[in-house]
Amino acid sequence: MVQTIAIEKVTLHDLEQRFALKLAEAPDFFSEWQEELPTLTQSERERLQRVEATYANLERRSLLENTVKLAVVAPLLDLAGFFLPPFYVDTETVDPETTIEILAEDADMQFRGRMDVLVLLEQIWVLIIESKRAEFSLKVGIPQVLSSMLASPQKPQPVYGLVTNGSSFMFLKLVWEDVPKYARSKEFILDQDDGLALTLRIMKRLGAIAIENLR
Fold first, then answer.
1. Per-residue pLDDT averaged across 183-205, rounded?
2. CA 199 to CA 194: how far, in whole Å?
3. Distance, CA of 157 to CA of 129 (rounded, Å)
4. Spatial contact of 168 and 190, defined as CB atoms under 8 Å apart
5. 14-67: pLDDT as tens digits
6. Mean pLDDT of 67-96
7. Of 17, 154, 166, 168, which has the most beta carbons under 10 Å away?
8. How far apart are the first and last CA of the chain?
9. Number of H helices, E strands in the chain
10. Is the pLDDT higher at 203 or at 114?
11. Which residues have CB under 8 Å from 24's CB, separation 6+?
12. For the chain, which residues make up each domain, given as ranges?
């Protein structure tokens, strides 16, 4: 059965109370999204231009749910190397029976969306928000992906998250210390300020860190 939750069901306050989760205040706590980012090849940038053009074309016709994974997320995962060893996608979390539906209400109308979580190498979590409505911003997915990361086995090294609704992207870092601490990057927009290219560069950087942590 598909689980349905209201968009305010899982909150950061809930996670703070249950896990003693804290927002890291040190400015260098999550420097990975800003430092030592790999450069992109010309072919990679050309592929990203096609992704942007595809998204713009679909947006004109009103994006359909599930299209965002095919049009945006899958190409990014491919370009980042996340479909190749040693990475693997935990397909159990995207099984239709475990997909989470989200619900928002406006007057007498109800708007539905979906959230799917992919786990890559048990160190990188990708949460995809799918909806035709703008009500479901990245803020909906941040507590959800953090709750999944917190529920995973604790590791001595950080774990990372990416929340996307297809047009916006935000990265998170979670570290277990005396209490779990997290931080998030700024929000990157697909068609603004080279946002898609920066997103891919950060994904490549986090992928390299994950591989290094295996050694």
1. 96
2. 9
3. 27
4. yes
5. 899 989 999 999 989 999 999 999 999 999 999 999 999 998 888 777 665 567
6. 80
7. 166
8. 39
9. 6, 9
10. 203
11. 30, 175, 181, 182, 183
12. 3-213
Q: How confident is the model over 78-88, as pLDDT tens digits?
A: 999 999 999 98
Per DSSP, the three-state class of 190 is coil
The type of residue at 153 is P
Report which residue type is found at 194: D
Omega within 30 of 0 (cis) for the link into 38: no
What is the Cα 11 distance to its own chain's centre?
17
The two structure tokens encoding residue 47: 């592929």
Structure tokens at 187: 């929000």
Phi-psi region of 27 (alpha: psi -120 to 50; beta: other; left: phi over 0): alpha
> Quick one: tokens of 44?
């990679």
Q: Let me know: does 196 contact 51? Beta carbons within 8 Å.
A: yes
With tokens 């609704």, the residue in question is 165
Cβ pair 174, 180 in contact under 8 A = yes
CA 175 to chain centre: 17
Is 17:154 a contact under the CB 8 Å cutoff? no
Other Cβ atoms closer than 10 A to 155? 13
pTM of the model: 0.84
